[in-house]
């Protein structure tokens, strides 16, 4: 009995010793864990930072390729509506272009199809693609870098307020505006040539020969290279940059609004519905951002188009007083509504167009993220 008691005491004491040791180890481990600095949990913010994650996974060449293809594909899909928009915008510059006192999209589309054929809806689309490939590439590339530069972050206070919605909106706005102005300046001559090719009409030319005088229909600009040569010969090299001031004044705010509205809507959408497909989110948010940017900057874009067409086809100059003078002339001759001439086909164009750009860009970024980033 005494032996059993002693054994029981030993076992009980050993058990208490084990429990005490275990508790000491657990307490020491807990204290050690609490004393360690807590690491940021990056996985909690994945839905809000998916764009930056994809950006870190693709190289420069892949990013430029994604932006260029997205822009060219979107412009090709919306080329017919883009040409209708330009034709409506330039009405009122000359008497023969002011014939449509009550513009009708269907009537103008029928006129183009009957007089010039169905392919005429894509007139100038080759130069559009030639312009949009580098423009969209530079635009997206610069935006991704401008919004991350330390100077821009420090100026807007992003370093001290990383979770501030207003600061993030400011970064997207300023970064988008700077990116748009950079891309527009680098590719402006192609944009001017594209506008003139899309806006020109067939003109009557009299040819005299041994059979008499014949009248035939001809076009003034016969292609991209011919347009460059003709403009430089008749208007000088600076003619390729006619309307650049109005372009920068319009493109800067337009791209700034587009990017900031898109990023804000996408972040808001993903915070409530993080499992929705990227394609659907990009298409919807891009379409809404296109409506917002076009409404805000359409008058400047209209003035830009008209200044680009000054002297086109050998016509007389209409606006001789610069940007503000052009605004004043349009308001006096056509009223305030003249500044929004062609806004309806513009909406028809930007709703699918901007949505397709962002949708294609995000999709290509995800596809190209698997390509080795050796550049």
In words, what does this structure look like?
- The protein has 14 helices and 2 strands.
- It has 375 residues and is mainly alpha-helical.
- Strands 1-2 form a two-stranded antiparallel ribbon.
- The longest helix has 34 residues, at 2-35.
- It is globular.
- The termini are far apart.
- The model is unreliable at 1-15, 25-56, 95-100 and 209-216 (pLDDT under 50).
Summarize the structure.
This protein has 375 residues and is mainly alpha-helical.
Please give the structural blueprint.
Blueprint: H1 2-35, H2 50-57, H3 60-77, H4 79-89, H5 105-116, H6 125-146, H7 150-155, H8 165-186, H9 188-199, E1 203-209, E2 212-218, H10 224-235, H11 244-272, H12 278-308, H13 322-334, H14 343-368
Antiparallel strand pairs: 1-2
